[in-house]
Amino acid sequence: MRTFYPEIEPYETGMLDVGDGQMIYWEASGNPEGKPAVYLHGGPGGASSAAQRRVFDPAKYRIVLFDQRGCGQSTPHASAPQADLATNTTWHLVADLEKLREHLGIDRWLVCGGSWGSTLGLAYAETHPSKVSELVLRGIFTLRPVELDWFYEGGAAAIYPDLWEAFLAPVPEAERGHLIEAYGRLLHDPDGFVRERAGIAWATWESSTITLLQEPDKIAHFSEPAFAVAFARIENHFFKHGGWFEPNQLIRDAGLLAHIPGVIVQGRYDMCTPAFTAWDLHKNWPEADFHMIPDAGHAFDQPGILHAIIEATDRFAD
Ligand code: STX
Q1: What is the CA angle 279-280-284, rounded to 5?
Q2: Using CA atoms, how far apart are residues 24 and 91, in angstroms rounded to an integer?
Q3: 197 CA to middle of ligand 1, Å?
Q4: pLDDT value at position 318?
Q5: How far apart are alpha carbons 271 and 267 in whole angstroms?
Q6: Is 235 helix (H, G, I), strand (E, B) or coil?
Q7: Mind listing the pLDDT tens digit for each residue in 281-310?
Q8: Tens of pLDDT along 11-22?
């Protein structure tokens, strides 16, 4: 089984001005002369992390990580009381990727990401296919209503009735018919306590359902208030707008990826982004290798998922 490469530190970091008053944190690690690869973090509204560097051989890759608009170390942070998300959309993030690629002097790069990172990777590759040398995607998520309904409107309550109660708790009973809308109001409530309680409940629901077995350290990490509020606000904003996609857009247009070497990795017991979406993508992009991991949930740092991702990045390194 392949597992994480050793811990490494960036050899370079920066803040890139992408316009609209937004500064994007980025970093490069591994081999400055190596093959360029970019890792797209999840959420939207999550953050880059040191573990994400470790799915690439640092001797062979120039590893680029960055924090998407409004989250991680990018500024302004979406947890700020008056945060305005009007210029934070899928297509702004796709444009930011192009700005970062050009800033770093990279012609083409391997694009790797999971969950929302797979969404953004597909949107980017379908928009700029000539800039993508390979695609390595995990936990496929395309923001279709059926996917959002499953995880945020009650489908997954069938598996986690106990945790679902905690997700419902901050929402007044009369508003539980449309939870994404109700959370959207709570997350921008004038009362900071209301915003924080909603953000923590939202992030806790997600972090306690993304692994096959619950991981208390992970749940605690993602319920840190500033992280949780930014994460919840950004996710909620994107979901309210269906990611600014046309119906089924990313799967409909997967034919644009036919010539890009690709790998799809999906956990069988992924309760956040269930396997039907990965399967739909596989049907419309049959050229990509498809791996259904029989004993894994959603998160990338689970043994079978990690093995398949690193096997792919190793194969593409040469
Ligand atoms: N959101 C899935 C996603 O991208 C629908 C995601 N879920 N949890 C995360 O990301 C964190 C690991 C960032 C908490």
Answers
A1: 115
A2: 15
A3: 19
A4: 85
A5: 9
A6: helix
A7: 999 999 999 999 999 999 999 999 999 999
A8: 999 999 999 999
Report which residue type is found at 114.
G
Q: Which residues line ligand 1 (CB under 6 A)?
A: 42-43, 46, 115-116, 141, 206-207, 210, 222, 272
Pick from 208, 203, 202, 199: which is nearest to 162 by CA?
Answer: 208
- Cα-to-centroid distance, 91 and ligand 1 (Å): 19
Q: Residue 234 has what DSSP assignment? A: H
Q: Yes or no: say if 52 and 27 are a contact pair by the CB < 8 Å rule.
A: no
Taking alpha carbons only, the member of 296, 298, 316 closest to residue 56 is: 316
**Average confidence (pLDDT) over 160-177:** 98
CA of 33 to the centre of ligand 1 (A): 31
Other CB atoms within 10 A of residue 151 CB: 21
Which residue, chain included where needed, has tokens 């969950």? Answer: 115
CA-43 nearest atom, ligand 1: 4
Report yes or no on whether pTM surpasses 0.90. yes
Residue 132 has pLDDT above 90, yes or no: yes
Helices (H) and strands (E) in the chain, counts: 12, 8
| Probe residue for ligand 1, chosen from 41, 71, 116, 144 as the CB with the greatest number of ligand atoms within 8 Å | 116
Burial class (CB in 10 A: 0-12, 13-18, 19+), 6: exposed
Burial class (CB in 10 A: 0-12, 13-18, 19+), 268: middle
Q: What percent of the chain has pLDDT over 70?
A: 100
Helix (H, G, I), strand (E, B) or coil at 147: helix
> How many whole angstroms from its chain centre is CA 208?
16
**Exposure of 135 by Cβ count < 10 A (0-12 exposed, 13-18 middle, 19+ buried)?**
buried
Instruction: Name the residue with the closest Cα to ligand 1, atom 13.
Output: 46
Contact between 166 and 205 (Cβ < 8 Å) = yes
